[in-house]
């Protein structure tokens, strides 16, 4: 039987992986089962899998391999297949789960999961996965470890604070916790130095990260985290894909007369959202444009601070993506060209133009004194704006 397309679903585990091969028939375009087998999750098992694949189909180089992301257990096989020049697509577990539910597969085991992934490989278009570089992979590993150390430092500090106010304090326990906190902070500092060593080895990467740090309120750790988690934005064709990957895509919940709550999906990379939390607070605190205006506008409409901060996080991510692709630094005057006039010092009376006749007051009408408008109050992180606000100028 001839096939117009081959798809192989691979379900990974720590010690082995299940592979199921399907083909799309040229007669009725139906999915035909070709074979399935288990292999060891080792280099030897990977080679056996390639040999089995060539035995089952004559065009093994045209097979679409769909692998479900399982922690880090899938990475060695995905990198091996990519190095062999084969088409590999790595899917999130929730996407594979929803597809299998649509097929009516109620039972779940490794063999059934591989079969469902094979159906996905044959019936859908998939984006090709490319292996990250060694530098990007190490950056991601280091930043994630630093994130875990920060959580442990915070937890240990809270324990020290709680025991310090106890009725009967144990000084030995307190000393152990303080020593533990110091060790964690030392490890975090050592990891930060490892990042510096990586950037020193790659001057081009360090220059691009330095451009992104031109955004006031965004630090090196934030940029390194985002770049490491996205593999240098290699797999993204547009900003919408990046927004969805980070979990900032908006999800609506309405049908007929029902109007549910609209929120972000959070079905994405949580490390990126965590890294952008404090930078969003910083750019609003320091009134960096255009983020500050965005925050004010959303806060006026929703009256919820965190909704505005999340919108700022999304805009920061999109801006970082654009600057990275263009290899440019941040220029707030480019985003706000009307503010450039305020940066030019002019001597009173110099280069002044005659006022337009259209703006001159009419002589037939009596001049009426202008009403003084109270200054507009703006939202801050500590207080809400007043309810009486003037209408913003269209200029």
What do these coordinates show?
- This protein is of the alpha/beta class.
- The chain has three domains: 3-123, ATPase, nucleotide binding domain (Nucleotidyltransferase, domain 5, 2-Layer Sandwich); 133-201; 215-336, no CATH class.
- The protein has helices spanning 43-56, 75-83, 93-102, 110-123, 134-164, 171-201, 203-212, 220-229, 239-246, 270-275, 277-285, 291-302, 305-326, 332-335, and strands at residues 3-12, 16-25, 31-40, 63-68, 87-91, 250-251, 254-255, 258-259, 263-264.
- A hairpin with a 3-residue loop joins strand 1 and strand 2 (16-25).
- Residues 337-368, 370-378 and 380-395 have low confidence and may be disordered.
What key phrases describe this protein's structure?
5-stranded mixed beta sheet, Nucleotidyltransferase, domain 5, globular, 9 strands
Helix content: 40-55%
User: What is the count of distinct domains?
Assistant: 3
Estimated structural class: alpha/beta
Overall average residue pLDDT: 84
Task: Supply the number of helical segments.
Answer: 14
What value does the Rg take, in angstroms?
29 Å
What string, H for helix and E for strand, traces the elements in order?
EEEHEHEHHHHHHHEEEEHHHHH
Count of β-strands: 9
Backbone shape: globular
Structural topology:
Blueprint: E1 3-12, E2 16-25, E3 31-40, H1 43-56, E4 63-68, H2 75-83, E5 87-91, H3 93-102, H4 110-123, H5 134-164, H6 171-201, H7 203-212, H8 220-229, H9 239-246, E6 250-251, E7 254-255, E8 258-259, E9 263-264, H10 270-275, H11 277-285, H12 291-302, H13 305-326, H14 332-335
Parallel strand pairs: 1-4, 4-5
Antiparallel strand pairs: 1-2, 2-3, 6-9, 7-8
């Amino acid at each position: 039987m001839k096939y117009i397309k081959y798809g192989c679903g691979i379900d990974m585990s720590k010690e082995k992986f299940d592979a199921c091969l399907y083909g799309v028939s040229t007669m009725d375009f139906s999915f035909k089962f070709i074979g399935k087998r288990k292999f060891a999750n080792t280099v030897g098992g990977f080679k056996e899998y390639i040999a089995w694949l060539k035995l089952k189909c004559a065009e093994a180089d045209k097979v679409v391999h769909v692998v479900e992301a399982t922690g880090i257990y899938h990475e060695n096989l995905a990198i091996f297949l990519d190095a062999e020049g084969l088409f590999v697509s790595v899917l999130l577990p929730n996407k594979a789960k929803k597809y299998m539910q649509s097929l009516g597969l109620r039972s779940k085991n490794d063999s059934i999961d591989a079969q469902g992934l094979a159906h996905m490989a044959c019936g859908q278009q998939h984006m090709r996965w490319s292996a990250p570089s060694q530098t990007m992979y190490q950056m991601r590993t280091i930043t994630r470890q630093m994130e875990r150390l920060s959580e442990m430092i915070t937890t240990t500090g809270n324990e020290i604070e709680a025991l310090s106010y106890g009725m009967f304090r144990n000084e030995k326990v307190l000393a152990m916790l303080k020593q533990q906190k110091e060790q964690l902070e030392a490890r975090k500092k050592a990891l930060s130095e490892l990042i510096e060593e990586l950037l020193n080895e790659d001057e081009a990467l360090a220059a691009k990260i330095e451009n992104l740090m031109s955004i006031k309120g965004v630090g090196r750790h934030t940029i390194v985290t985002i770049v490491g988690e996205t593999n240098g934005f290699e797999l993204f064709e547009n900003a919408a894909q990046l927004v969805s990957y980070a979990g900032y895509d908006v999800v609506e919940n309405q049908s007929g007369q029902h109007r549910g709550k609209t929120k972000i999906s959070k079905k994405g990379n949580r490390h990126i959202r965590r890294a952008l939390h404090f930078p969003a607070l910083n750019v609003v605190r320091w009134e960096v444009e255009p983020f500050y205006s965005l925050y004010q506008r959303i806060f006026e409409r929703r009256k919820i601070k965190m909704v505005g901060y999340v919108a700022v996080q999304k805009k920061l991510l999109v801006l970082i993506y654009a600057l990275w692709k263009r290899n440019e630094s941040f220029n707030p005057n480019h985003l706000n060209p009307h503010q450039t006039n305020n940066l030019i010092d002019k001597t009173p009376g110099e280069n002044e133009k005659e006022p337009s006749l259209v703006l001159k007051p009419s002589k037939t009408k009596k001049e009426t004194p202008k009403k003084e408008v109270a200054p507009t109050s703006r939202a801050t992180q500590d207080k809400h704006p007043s309810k009486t606000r003037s209408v913003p100028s269209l200029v």
